[in-house]
Amino acid sequence: MAGNTGPTLLVTVDSFRADAIGPHTPTLQSLADRGTVFGNAFAQGNWTPFSFPSLLGGRPVFADGPDIGVGTGPTLAETLSKHDVETAGFNAANGFLTEYWGYDRGFDEFETFLTHSTPVGRALAAHPTVQAWSLFATQPFRSAWRRLRDRETHPAENTSRLRDLEERATAFLESADPSSFCWVHYMDTHTPYVPAPAHVKAASDGEMGTPKMLRAHLNAGLGRSVGERTLEDLRTLYAGAARQVDASVGRLLSTLEGRGLRDETTVIVAGDHGEEFQEHGHLAHYPKLYGELIEVPLIVDAPGDTVDRVETPVGLDAVPATVGDAMDVPAPPGATGESLLPAVRGEGSLRDEPIVSVTVRGESVTQQPIPRHLDDGEVLVSARTADWTFIRHAESGRTELYDRGADPVERNDRWGDDPDAPIDALERAVERRLETIGGDGQARDGAGGRDEADVDDEIETRLEALGYR
Description:
The chain is of the alpha/beta class. 34% of the residues lie in helices and 14% in strands.
């Protein structure tokens, strides 16, 4: 049984860049000021299904077979449940974080918010931008209706299922055991960025209204050329979406405060991967391994005295061991990451080893379908230290090397041109990862080993809406 610990709240935010926290996210900035910021935190994939097996399962994607999904070993939630920790997981309609790929395993309460009871709801879920504009157009009428019925108007549109997510997470936090674990995954900063206008106005100091929002979505969504003006508008929408998440996280923390549990709670906040704004020629998060997609925010706010910042490189596979440590529970068997709490408390140092990330690329970067299996394209593997990025294209043998100290945007390939780079350590890390990819090649029950035709219609609808066909 777990020891007498406080609750642990794990907040993950989809497509959350390392630079997403700032003045427009006061709650997360306050967490960063009060807790420990990991200045070199890296996702282990460029998109959700390549990142989350490490984050909630403990082992990296493809370590146990050729399909996406959590591996065959115990997940974080299963390990916590084995030690009598009450667990809940709430995912705001990301189809890749569902029962089909094994993410429900071990959770006492698990909800993905994929189900829509009406044909209209299903149609709008398939077209989130249309849903957003329909909500904007009807906002005055809905607000008036709620006031007439004596109901509070929620400060966010529900295109990302944020309102549903927050209500369920709040209900759990209000009644759960004081030593419970709650995971909450927000989708607001995933394309398309459609936060409530109030958050956009706040993020833009009142300069961006609905016409600009519509123009930015039309230019990007219709495949028109995205110039600096549109790019800046998209960044503003993204900042508004981040502010929307921030406000929701603040309300969850207030719930814990109301129960007198806030100071006992370990709060972990991470992006599951980043987001590109044409740093390497595209928007969103196509299969590449550059910093805008791999560098993520990671904050650990633990009870007691903590250090302000840790610069040793860490991967998101540290999350399962860190949660276990916070709850006095062992890490999941086979977990590759180490607990961050000793470094957070200034009681020890972390292994200073390259952090490895993986993606799979088809014949072109933007080729559909988005890969779900090893045989859907070429494997790319990167290794990162605090200063260097090394990328290998496994099939072609192409290699890339970037000195991020001199070239933070990773555009000047230094392969074969820099004797000071720690090439041996970087190459060894990539080789070790390549040796584990594919595992024993066996399909995994409940974790992606089934035929794609078995994927639930609700999952496919949501994935297609997010661009994953």
